[in-house]
From TrEMBL:
Pfam families: Lactamase_B_2. Residues 13-189 form the Metallo-beta-lactamase domain. Coiled coil: none annotated. This is Beta-lactamase domain protein.
Length: 260
């Protein structure tokens, strides 16, 4: 195994991704209760006691809900930006340890190298990530209101991608959300639509790409079948025939993906 990842939860009710090399295991975000995270990890090849660290993309509750309890219970260092640290809800409580990273500057956890980069979202200092091991790259980018040239540049050359596909524009506009929330989601500091997600993917194709997971779907303004239907042109394109497409689940873990 070179680099493995598995989406533990994905959506507005909580987000978390397990990322592993043969000897290092990290959790990117801990947006469920610690008890639920432990339970879901039992469905994977890595249990909570085997984790080496937790990495936080930003301080919103659906990304950090369980991070305090998880850190204290298993004595895990939490890696996060200074803005995310300052923005943590006091109810998160004490962290067993923390390490501040700077978006734009790579850092290591075990034999994993993480490259955080700034993204556009209504948080203090949110980050996307490329996680690298033995030359294999996994790109993770959710909760971004707009795809910048920096995002495109950082995600080039990845073998695996976890990309936001939050909403269908028509479902959002015609749905039950209040207008101010619709505006926030559609803004440059909100979330990517299915259309935006596909346009980003088209820019990121490379010969090494083997796996794409669409993530952070809205349960109100999107559904997995719609995401996959929208991506049919890519799925049926011979150029993309070696790429496996999945949709991250809110209420269960998705199958693991091994990148070589």
């Amino acid at each position: 195994m070179s680099l493995m990842f598995q989406v533990i939860a994905s959506g507005s009710k909580g987000n978390s991704i397990l990322i592993s090399s043969p000897r290092t295991h990290i959790l990117l975000d801990a947006g469920l209760s610690a008890r639920e995270l432990v339970r879901r990890l039992e469905k994977t090849s890595v249990n909570a006691r085997q984790l080496d660290a937790v990495v936080v993309s930003h301080e919103h509750a659906d990304h950090v809900r369980g991070v305090g309890v998880l850190s204290r219970r298993f004595e895990l260092v939490v890696h996060l930006s200074q803005g995310s640290l300052e923005g943590l809800d006091p109810q998160i409580g004490r962290l067993a340890g923390h390490q501040v990273f700077q978006p734009g500057r790579a850092f290591d956890i075990g034999d994993l190298r993480l490259h955080p980069f700034p993204i556009s979202h209504d948080a203090r200092e949110p980050s996307g990530f490329v996680v690298e091991h033995a030359g294999v790259r996994l790109g993770i980018c959710t909760d971004l209101g707009v795809v910048t040239e920096l995002v495109k540049a950082r995600l080039q050359g990845c073998s695996g991608l976890v990309i936001e596909a939050n909403h269908d524009p028509d479902l959002l506009i015609n749905g039950p959300y209040p207008w101010h929330l619709k505006q926030r989601i559609r803004s440059r500091h909100g979330h990517l639509s299915n259309i935006d997600s596909l346009e980003l993917l088209k820019c990121l194709y490379n010969e090494c790409l083997r796996s794409v997971v669409f993530a952070h779907l809205s349960e109100t303004n999107n559904h997995p079948e719609l995401v996959l239907e929208n991506s049919r042109d890519l799925v049926n394109n011979p150029r993309w025939e070696k790429v496996r497409f999945q949709v991250g689940k809110q209420h269960d873990v998705t199958p693991p993906v091994e990148l070589m």
